[in-house]
Amino acid sequence: MNGRPDFNLPTGSPRNVLKYWSTKNGGLVAVRLENYQLSYAELAEMAGEVAGQLGARDIGEGDQVALVIENSVDFIIGLFAIFHLGATAVTMDPELKREQLSQLLESGEVDYLLVKHRGELNTQEWNRSIVSSQTVSFNLLQRQQPIHKTVQLTSKILLHRCTSGSTGIPRHVLSTEAQIADDYLHLLRGLGLSTRERFLGIAPFFHAFGCLALLSALASGSEIYPVSKFHPGRLVNNPVFRRSSVFFATPPMIELLGRCFIDERKAGAFAEMKHCICATARLKIDSYEKFKNRFGIGVRILYGSSETLSATITDGNVYAEGCVGEPLPGVSLAIFDAAGEMLPVGQVGRVGVKSPSSCDGYSYGVDSLSICAKYVLPGDKGYVDERGKLYILGRDDLINIGGYKVDRIEIESLISDRFPVCFILIQQYDRMGQPALEAVIEGDEGALDPGEITDFCKAKLLPYKIPSRIRIFSALPRDANGKVRISDIPKI
Amino acid sequence: MPNDIREICITTLEKFITDQSTITNIKNGASILESATIDSLSLVNLIVELENSLGFSFESDDFEGIFSSLDKLVCYIDSQLS
């Protein structure tokens, strides 16, 4: 991860990247599509026009504006209009059903919504108006009765994303300007990208990974080609897209590109590609090899999460099962056991990421973020090898209780942060033929009251996450290294 | 030729749609997208399968229109191949 870009990156707020490149070179192309292109200066001007109309409706610092738009020039203009105002952009999946969207907007205390169509919400609760620039037009929906705010935001909070995480329950992650800037800066530095790259913008911009692609492109003074619908044939045949030099992809995209039909007359797609970066799920070796054989470039696997943002990346030269590469510049990794002890190289445990991009916790809800010794635990099981490469073996924190996925680390962290426990394990047990949760705790039996722990959990956790049984032991069986032998914990 | 294309389309659809009554409805003119439990990813898979089976590329992004019926799908593919 020693690559260095051959230019000065705008290290200030992401809000200013359009202005930065407009000042340096107003004619520099920012967005290119089949039929037209927009320079940084033009993009900044359009975003400024939309911002002016939003500002005229008293939207500004401290407000949240949801952006529910597929990958497009409109998304980019809307995003930077919100940035321009010092407001917080809430990027949301345009494929959300109306009910889901409504719930997320309510739980996230969002009063404004920028959309392309007016049917997204019940218009009896929302006022609608039009905001537009030279080439784009949005519907602005404004809640008729503003929601009471429990979180006061400042202009430092740049983005608000909703993630279902491992639990299926929405969590709200707020990211500061500094965290987002660090996310793309350490990636650009790690890749050693130069300015004037050509990014294929097909990973959804509302998602952390797609947003990283978008902001990396614009922060580096590169071009981005926004693509709303993935269709492999269109990518390899389109004269603009096939010239991409940087591609942020998901595993299904890699898999389909490796086996889609390509007309021999149109060979040579992606011949100028320098980096193909894949994230969000595990890439199969078969997909990796077919893509590499077809396009001559190895896919680089990026590891991260909504909570930590980008953390590690592979070099793409060799595929190793589970390997997600080395930490990006400024990122540290550690592996922890169930008791929160840091494990040595090669030992399997919970993956911890320490990064300037990591969030501090969830907002607008009762869920707590798992943090150990300042490392955020995204909920993955893995190990770091002697060369510092991280291997992900899967998620070890999920328990399925009656269809609900329970994040055991969340419950363990919550209890161990509040009570003097030496060791805690949340596990499943059979209660009259039904799966239920129990907490096995090692600690001073006189200082730990199961009833008090249960009451605390009831106040902090959703009902299905509350352990229905709590067992406290003064000492649990341990091996020669002092680790608890979970298989030897007494059964009832 | 359209009949051959139609048969290939049906065979390909049957890989994605196991419910025979849905296939029958599609054969009778029902919308492919509305009749089947085809999400956006399986639609892309279906497209790739059709392209590989018939040796052509979808040039249009108007999937809603093309997949609104079997006849329209066959007609579109036929126009691409001729």
Please supply descriptive tags for the structure shown above:
heterodimer; A: 492 residues; alpha/beta; 11 helices; 27 strands; 25% helix; B: 82 residues; mainly alpha; globular
Write structural notes for this entry.
- The complex is a heterodimer of chains A (492) and B (82).
- Chain A has helices at residues 17-24, 40-55, 73-85, 98-107, 177-191, 208-219, 232-237, 251-259, 285-295, 408-418, 450-460; strands at residues 29-32, 37-39, 64-67, 88-91, 112-115, 126-132, 137-143, 157-163, 171-176, 198-201, 223-226, 246-249, 275-278, 299-305, 309-313, 323-327, 332-336, 349-354, 371-372, 375-376, 380-384, 390-395, 398-401, 404-407, 421-431, 434-443, 469-473.
- With 492 residues, chain A is of the alpha/beta class.
- By secondary structure, chain B is mostly helical.
- Chain B is 71% helix and 0% strand.
- Chain B has six helices and no strands.
- In chain B, α1 packs antiparallel against α4 (40-54) and α1 crosses α6.
- Chain A binds chain B through residues 95, 229-234, 237, 252, 256, 259-263, and chain B through 40-41, 44-45, 47-48, 51-52, 55-59, 61, 63.
Topology:
The complex is a heterodimer of chains A (492) and B (82).
Chain A: H1 17-24, E1 29-32, E2 37-39, H2 40-55, E3 64-67, H3 73-85, E4 88-91, H4 98-107, E5 112-115, E6 126-132, E7 137-143, E8 157-163, E9 171-176, H5 177-191, E10 198-201, H6 208-219, E11 223-226, H7 232-237, E12 246-249, H8 251-259, E13 275-278, H9 285-295, E14 299-305, E15 309-313, E16 323-327, E17 332-336, E18 349-354, E19 371-372, E20 375-376, E21 380-384, E22 390-395, E23 398-401, E24 404-407, H10 408-418, E25 421-431, E26 434-443, H11 450-460, E27 469-473
Parallel strand pairs in A: 3-4, 3-5, 4-8, 10-11, 10-12, 12-13, 13-14, 26-27
Antiparallel strand pairs in A: 1-2, 5-7, 6-7, 8-9, 14-15, 15-16, 16-22, 17-18, 18-21, 19-20, 21-22, 23-24, 25-26
Chain B: H1 2-16, H2 20-27, H3 32-35, H4 40-54, H5 63-66, H6 70-81
Helix pairs in contact in B: 1-4, 1-6
